[in-house]
Design brief:
Radius of gyration: 34 Å
Structural class: mainly alpha
Number of strands: 4
């Protein structure tokens, strides 16, 4: 494991400008604007190419050849079982591409690619081995690797692939049916050892569920997506009954493999279909194009390789036209003939299928190709086409279906639908569909539910998402009525959801850009996606505001770097990569070139000019975005207010001084700060909605401190998330790196509540209630009993089971003091929010019990900490005689001594404000008063009555008091809930095995202890002034110094010495933390560990802030910045 070690140097503090002097530099090529004439010539050539195939009638498809489909063609015999194979060149292709290193076939981009390729090819080997005299002639030296040996090696390779396959994470076209059927066919052919592998049960369940949705005669009645994968139904259906459903070109939904299976099924019955044979011959003999890959050696016409779908002309033509047009390429007079050819082709398709489209002419229609075709037609000048057929055919309850019977929605298809809707002359008519689709897209990203089914690289859907958001805001700028309608239907969509989603995407895009300006380790096509994503994001008001901050346009700089990389690698523009998903992944040189050209010509944004929006200030001083056109609504609050931004930037400056964040790219911190501003609005609203803690004069006195901590909370999460993205990019492991906004926001809420409960326990409980009774044993027991009662409410979670104790106030609750009842109800709301959270309720029961126990331990630790403070204060002050008598009486009765009823302010049930009641001498005001009255020096060494050592204290009471242990368990519930997309998910870190649970708990305990010591390191002076117990008050720190310290705090040299000791112990604890992290990564894997690391970073950050706050006083870290972080 590679661990990040963040250590403090005590020899010198950080410089005041450190936050803005470290940079994540990007290698800059000598940047020159690409030759416009050269770009124009290449664009002309591409448009001419696609238009020529629109009028030729021969079909177009530049996608790469696939071993899988080629293997199916290689098995066709005419007649059946004759040994006369119809396409011997396909079998030669299979032989040529078997890997000598493993015996299997290539996995283009995903594990399922290799499984399908190898399984189908192995089946072909077995079929051909039955006819050894019919082996195809070859110019290669395949004969030195005879078929029996090939079959043996292929079988072993397939077993290995299946053993390593994560079935649950796979989502490619019909895989559950395809793999299951291939394995059965292989078993029938004599291949053994394939029926039992780790994911076999999951695969079988998916297979059965899929078939259960299909009526018995469904496949014979009408075309469906199932006809694209008929090979999965070999042995299940009568192929002689599906011929009437084939396409005009003789194919089964343009699938070579499905069509081959259809012919195989007919041949077994002594039947044949000449049209289907003609289709397959056309695929084998299709025209090949420059840049078409998949063969490893360039691929030539008639070499035997076939793609997973053919033709794909509607798909490729519409994607080329729309991609170029949206980047600014105008289809005007210069392309009159080409434009007419493409437009005519699409208009014929519009008429033929009633305004709907497939990926090839006459195929099964889908929302994705329909939306793109409508957009292409409008770019080509046909503004009469509308979206009514699209809406009627594909609109669902909360999104748009790609096609009938779709298992999981496609985010890219919904992005294209949204952009298409916004292209209409009056998009206001479709406001409800626009809002519905935009909310669906935001929700998919918010919960990390995106499972893009048509592309393997997330920058693809991020590009389309950013484009649809840009289209929305550009359309609102041009159509005030649309803006008013959208705000009326869903104001939160524009004020929070789209900003948070787009900033989430911006973090990923900026953070994953390589030092050479590229994305995906130098893939030109993906680099084009990255550049186009940034270009579309720059249309959004808050991104424009971000681009103008700090005088550095880092978004434009990233785009320029991407353009420079593309210019330097122009030879790769026609080299498609395996990025697109079908049954197996495929590449398209035409699409690759189109995206690279679009990224090359798209303008670099200039954030000094804002064409569509202007900023205004309302009566409350808050900045708003207002459309230049007169708006009909007054809720355009889309810019972040300067005051809010200033507070978050101050927090960001302090964060950047910590070792953990010193090397975070400033541009990522800037985005995290902007995201934190929107999250802060969410937090403030959530705080009011929850209403867990009373808004009393205690909160009112917090003032600036409260604003400071509220600014810190969201930023610690957004900045740590950005750090994970940067770590992923620089580490190259390709896992984790960006946690969902759902997890971030839920943890922000918990962090806020933990701050509030910490404050509440210190004031309402420790200062006011315990202070009223001078910290008597009876009052301490009363608070502990209240905590017991709170958890008795949640007995169904397994926390009860014990007999309820009698109240010290008597059995009748009427005698319980009012303020104690308030404490009980307040803590009940707090505990209920945690234990009844949907993510917790969906966790395994043992995890729920663990969490409940840890939350209870956390609250009891507050009581124990208060008790320690009382004991510590009593040992360092001389109480008055009355106080001593009061304590003696309490010790004798075990109950709080009665207060004279002649003092109305002494009634514990009194509604008078806490500030009028007596408080503990350990409170800040009382402590300061005592110190002023007792100038004589006292040794402030804490001697626990129960013989606890510093080690046992910091590992128990102190660590529990930080909230770290239970917060981590809550975090694991969020992760498993999020991964399961809201379903009951048992894949929790504490529900795996004993080893994982033990190491995870040890890791968190080390983290909590470490952060407490960092906390105390930075709070020695404050704790001394307030009379709070600090780590350095334990006797172990004064052995060497003879136990000399004063009531005003530690003396100069002595303070330096104990702080040095405390830091040494903290770094010792860090080494233990790092070891636990390494062990845990070995148990759960890198991807899971990256998710865990986010929590570790946030928690570690709070401890580091305390240290920086202490050593940064001389470096200009202001008191306001230091006030924003509380203990625990």
């Amino acid at each position: 494991m590679s661990t990040s070690v963040h250590r403090f140097s005590q020899q010198s503090g950080p410089s005041t400008n450190l936050a803005f002097t470290t940079h994540h530099n990007i290698t800059r090529y000598p940047f020159t604007i690409m030759d416009p004439s050269s770009l124009q010539a290449q664009i002309n050539s591409l448009i001419t190419f696609v238009s020529s195939h629109c009028s030729s009638g021969k079909g177009l498809g530049t996608t790469s050849s696939a071993i899988y489909d080629t293997a199916w063609l290689s098995m066709i015999q005419k007649p059946s079982n004759s040994g006369h194979f119809l396409f011997p060149q396909c079998f030669t292709y299979i032989l040529r591409h078997q890997l000598r290193s493993t015996g299997g076939w290539v996995s283009y981009a995903t594990p399922i690619d290799g499984i399908l390729n190898t399984a189908a090819a192995l089946l072909a080997l077995k079929r051909h081995s039955l006819f050894p005299s019919h082996q195809p002639p070859t110019q290669l030296d395949e004969l030195d690797w005879p078929l029996p040996s090939r079959i043996s090696h292929a079988s072993t390779a397939l077993q290995s692939m299946l053993s390593d396959w994560d079935v649950a994470s796979t989502d490619q076209v019909g895989f559950e049916l395809l793999v299951t059927r291939l394995l059965l066919l292989l078993e029938e052919s004599g291949v053994t050892g394939l029926s039992s592998f780790p994911g076999s049960a999951t695969l079988r369940a998916l297979h059965d569920a899929k078939l259960a949705k299909l009526p018995a005669n469904y496949v014979y009645k009408a075309r469906s997506t199932l006809h694209h994968s008929l090979e999965a139904l070999t042995g299940y259906i009568d192929f002689s009954k599906v011929g009437h459903l084939k396409e005009e070109n003789g194919s089964m939904l343009a699938s070579p493999a499905s069509t081959a299976a259809y012919l195989l099924g007919l041949a077994e019955k002594g039947l044949w279909d000449d049209e289907s044979e003609g289709y397959l011959r056309g695929v084998v003999e299709r025209e090949r194009f420059e840049g078409e890959c998949g063969d490893g050696d360039g691929g030539q016409k008639g070499d035997g390789g076939v793609p997973c779908a053919w033709p794909t002309e509607t798909f490729e033509v519409t994607w080329v036209v729309t991609t170029l047009a949206e980047a600014g390429v105008k289809f005007g007079e210069s392309w009159s003939s080409e434009g007419r050819a493409i437009r005519g082709y699409l208009e014929r398709g519009w008429e033929r299928d009633g305004g709907l489209f497939s990926f090839f002419p006459g195929g099964l229609v889908d929302a994705d190709d329909t939306a793109r075709a409508i957009m292409a037609l409008r770019h080509l000048g046909n503004t009469k086409v509308g979206v009514e057929p699209l809406i009627r055919a594909f609109e669902a309850k909360d999104h748009f279906r790609t096609y009938e019977g779709e298992r999981n929605p496609s985010i890219s298809a919904n992005c294209n639908v949204l952009t298409c809707l916004l292209m209409m002359d009056d998009p206001t008519i479709y406001s409800r569909q626009i809002v519905k689709t935009a909310k669906f897209l935001c929700q998919q990203v918010h919960t990390n539910s995106v499972r893009e089914k048509w592309h393997i690289n997330q920058l693809y859907w991020m590009m389309l998402l950013s484009q649809s958001f840009a289209a929305l805001f550009d359309s609102m700028a041009a159509n005030p009525s649309l803006e008013a309608s959208v705000f009326q239907l869903a104001p939160e969509l524009l004020q929070e959801q789209i900003p948070m989603t787009s900033l989430h995407v911006l973090t990923k895009v900026l953070g994953s850009q390589g030092l050479d300006g590229s994305w995906a380790n130098g893939i030109a096509e993906v680099t084009a996606y990255g550049n186009l994503t940034l270009s579309w994001l720059s249309h959004l008001p808050w991104i424009q505001q971000l681009g103008r901050m700090h005088g550095v346009n880092f978004i434009a700089a990233s785009i320029e770097s991407g353009k420079a990389f593309l210019e330097a690698h122009r030879q790769d523009w026609k080299k498609g990569q395996y990025l697109w998903i079908e049954k197996v992944t495929y590449a398209s040189p035409v699409l690759c070139e189109a995206y690279c050209l679009a990224a090359a010509v798209v303008p670099v944004p200039d954030f000094h000019f804002r064409a569509s929006y202007s900023s205004v200030v309302d009566a409350n001083g808050r900045h708003h975005v207002q459309l230049v056109q007169k708006s009909t609504t007054n809720v355009d609050s889309l810019f972040v207010s300067e005051g809010l931004l200033k507070g978050v930037l101050k927090a960001g400056q302090l964060i950047s001084l910590t070792p953990l964040f010193r090397n975070l790219a400033p541009r990522l911190l800037r985005v995290a700060e902007m995201q934190a501003c929107y999250a802060l609005d969410f937090l403030q609203r959530k705080r009011k909605e929850l209403g867990i803690f009373p808004e009393t004069d205690v909160h009112a006195t917090q003032g600036a401190d409260e604003k400071e901590y509220m600014a810190f909370i969201p930023l610690t999460w957004t900045a740590s998330n950005a750090l994970g993205v940067q770590r992923e990019a620089t580490g190259g492991h390709g896992h984790g790196g960006l946690q969902s906004n759902y997890v971030l926001q839920e943890m922000m809420v918990l962090s806020m509540l933990n701050y509030q409960v910490d404050e509440y326990m210190e004031t309402a409980v420790e200062r006011d209630f315990l202070g009223f009774y001078n910290g008597s044993k009876g009052s301490l027991e009363a608070v502990r009993q209240v905590i017991d009662e709170v958890f008795d409410e949640f007995d169904p979670l397994g926390m009860g089971g014990r007999k309820r104790r009698s109240s010290i106030w008597g059995d009748a609750d009427l005698h319980t003091p009012t303020n104690l009842k308030i404490i009980r109800s307040t803590l009940s709301r707090y505990v209920g929010h945690i234990l009844l959270h949907p993510a917790v309720r969906g966790a395994p029961e043992r995890v729920q019990k663990r969490l409940a126990s840890e939350v209870k331990t956390f609250l009891l630790a507050h009581v124990r900490h208060a008790e320690d403070n009382i004991q510590f204060a009593a040992a360092t002050s001389t109480p008055c005689t009355g106080q001593l008598n009061h304590d003696r009486q309490e010790e004798e009765t075990g109950l709080p001594s009665p207060i004279s009823e002649s003092e109305p302010s002494s009634n514990p049930s009194s509604p008078e404000p806490p500030s009028k009641r007596r408080r503990l001498s350990s409170s800040a005001s009382a402590s300061a008063s005592l110190q002023a009255q007792q100038p004589s020096k006292k040794i402030k060494i804490f001697t626990p009555t129960d013989s606890r050592t510093f080690y046992s204290w910091v590992r128990t009471t102190s660590a529990d008091h930080t909230s770290c242990p239970f917060s981590f368990t809550f975090y694991t519930c969020l992760l498993s809930h999020n991964n399961g997309n809201g379903n009951n998910n048992t894949d929790n870190l504490f529900n795996k095995d004993a080893k994982t649970s033990y190491v995870a708990e040890a890791m968190v305990r080390s983290l909590a202890s470490l952060c407490r010591m960092y906390n105390d390191y930075g709070s020695i002076t404050r704790d001394a002034g307030e009379g709070n117990l600090n780590s350095v008050n334990f006797a172990e720190f004064h052995i060497a110094g003879g136990g000399t310290c004063s009531s005003q705090g530690l003396l100069g040299e002595e303070e330096s010495r104990v702080k040095e000791e405390l830091m040494w112990i903290a770094e010792y604890e860090r080494r233990g933390l790092e070891r636990s992290m390494g062990e845990l990564e070995g148990l759960v894997g890198t991807e899971e560990m990256e998710k865990v690391r986010l929590f570790l970073d946030v928690t570690d950050l709070y401890g580091q802030i305390y240290v920086v706050r202490d050593i940064g006083v001389g470096a200009g870290v202001g008191a306001g910045a230091r006030a924003g972080v509380r203990r625990g």
